[in-house]
Amino acid sequence: MNEPPLVVSYGGGTNSTALLIGYVEKGIRPDLIMFSDTGGEFQRTYDYIYMFSDWLKKQGMPRIVWVNNAHREGFPHRSLEDECINNKTLPSLAFGFKGCSVKWKRQPMDRYIRDNFQPAKEAWEVGLKVRRAIGIDAGEPQRGKIPDDKKFTYEFPLMEWDWARDECLAAIERANLPMAGKSACWYCPASKRHEVVQLANDHPDLFERAVTMEENALLTTIKGLSRQRSWKEIVEADRQQLKLPFDEIAPDMDCMCFDGEADD
Q1: Which of 22, 66, 166, 211 is the most exposed place for a label (fewest CB within 10 A)?
Q2: Residue 95 pLDDT > 90, yes or no?
């Protein structure tokens, strides 16, 4: 093996969709494309991934491989939501950490590459590192600082091409595909106030599950998914037209698995 394999971490949103369209346009064919499922994406994201995987195949690209913690032998939780309910807690981002992204996004992909992707094994045997491409666009350079490790080198093609939000949207339009939008768990603690209200209005069933998650959790230092406020409190205040004493409800940190459009 002379060249290390190229693996793409696909998130199902605008950024990584544009990255793969860019590869098609530039004649770059990755060896593996993976989507890691937390079990908490909106149905529109799952539908988009199926559609986009078919489109990629027609372009001579690999189909998208789905990986999930629930596929692990002996793992007791079917989804991140299930894990939170079983352990009476919330996604770790609610507490200011990023363990939910690491455990449900990064680690399932790591295991698949290690256990099921033969080109990676062959590369490591001869001292090569697997190339890993991630869809972080040029408008968020602070997120593109993942250091290389013993097995992987990390690449950020959108940043290399100077593609920010507008360029990503334009790439999807050139491919005559519907817009992917934002990909994130519907109960993500990084959700903005208007996203929480929109969830309650558009998907009351999912909102009630988020409230159940909050009420089930044994909390001492925070009040809910938005740390200083529960989502139930946020929606009740909105419906009563009360102004809460803060502008944004999301914690002051990025969700590592964010793959979409920045809020206007």
Answers
A1: 166
A2: yes
